[in-house]
Design a protein that fits this description.
The protein is α+β, with helices and mostly antiparallel strands. Helices cover 68% and strands 9% of the residues. Strands 1, 2, 3 and 4 form a four-stranded mixed β-sheet that branches. Helix 9 links the parallel strand 3 and strand 4. The model has no long low-confidence stretch (mean pLDDT 85).
């Protein structure tokens, strides 16, 4: 969590500096795309603050009303961030672009745009590199980026990365809009760039909503992890057979598992209790993320053969 907080703090600092510069440039030049980019940076700054809030709240200890802790707070606030990117970032950008198309005005002092966009690209690029390095450090299995994002259970690991990537793309779109207007003399390109930036933000937000929704509703362990836990359980000499473990993530580092086990009929109560302790220890040693393990003693039905 400490490393992910460092990534978020660096992103917030970068976005605050960039937002100020973009608004100054928009005031001097009257560029709609630059104003849109300023709004984009303000939204990104607020999103970073919400992610930090989510991480802070998710660390609160369990209480009477939340016996399994508050781990899913990070999922809720990540979902809020995705909605904000869509509604505030994308919606306002598209709206501003439409207004500019309806009332086109030429850009004044365009050199301001290029200076601010160039500086913004460098600052945002630095934040993106920091987020990318953190993401690759978490991707120990060497999966492709999108596969790793689907497997990630901590939204902070990929949300800042997506926001920074969208910001870099938005800067390029704004620069393109300004350049096309100066080249053609047509002020409509500035408004079109704003709309393009808004559509980009909506697309990124939709992707983030899809990923965070699954975490908020509750996702299970990966099939191969569940299968490994089942093998650990069945490797104990006291176990005759166990069912497929039922699991759900209660937070990025907290998993709850229910598993039904059929112990050997010859065992006495004391031997079963010792076996349960061994199983719990073995599972948690290999998978520290399993914080809650519930074992049910059942007479299991024979499994259907494939």
């Amino acid at each position: 969590m400490k490393e992910s907080k460092r990534v978020i703090f660096s992103a917030i600092a970068a976005n605050v500096l960039i937002a100020i510069a973009k608004f100054v440039a928009a005031a001097f030049t009257g560029s709609s795309a630059m104003l849109t980019e300023g709004i984009h940076s303000v939204v990104d700054s607020g999103d970073g603050a919400l992610l930090l809030l989510g991480e802070r709240l998710s660390q609160r200890p369990a209480d009477e009303q939340h016996p399994y802790g508050h781990g899913r707070e990070i999922y809720f606030w990540s979902f809020v961030v995705a909605i904000m990117i869509f509604a505030v970032g994308g919606g306002i950008s598209i709206y501003e672009g439409i207004l500019r198309l309806m009332n086109p005005e030429p850009i004044k002092v365009p050199i301001w745009n290029y200076i601010v966009l160039g500086a913004s690209f460098l600052i945002e690029g630095t934040s993106f590199v920091i987020a990318l390095r953190h993401f690759h450090a978490q991707n120990e299995s060497g999966l492709t980026m999108f596969a790793a994002i689907k497997r990630s259970k901590n939204p902070s690991d990929f949300m800042v990365l997506f926001e920074d990537a969208a910001a870099l793309a938005g800067i390029l779109l704004a620069a393109l809009g300004v350049s096309l207007e100066l080249w053609t003399g047509n002020p409509m390109f500035d408004g079109a760039a704003s709309i393009a930036i808004g559509l980009l933000l909506c697309a990124v937000a939709a992707m983030l909503v899809r990923e965070t929704r699954g975490l908020l509703v509750g996702e299970s362990l990966l099939p191969e992890t569940a299968a490994r836990i089942r093998r650990i359980v069945e490797s104990d000499t006291a176990v005759e057979r166990c069912a497929h473990p039922l699991s759900t993530y209660l937070g990025p580092d907290t998993v709850l598992i229910n598993v039904a086990i059929q112990f050997r009929r010859s065992l006495e109560t004391g031997a079963i209790e010792r076996a349960i302790e061994r199983i719990e220890t073995s599972v948690r040693q290999e998978f520290p993320v399993v914080k809650h393990l519930f074992i049910a003693l059942e007479s299991l039905e024979p499994e259907a053969s494939d």
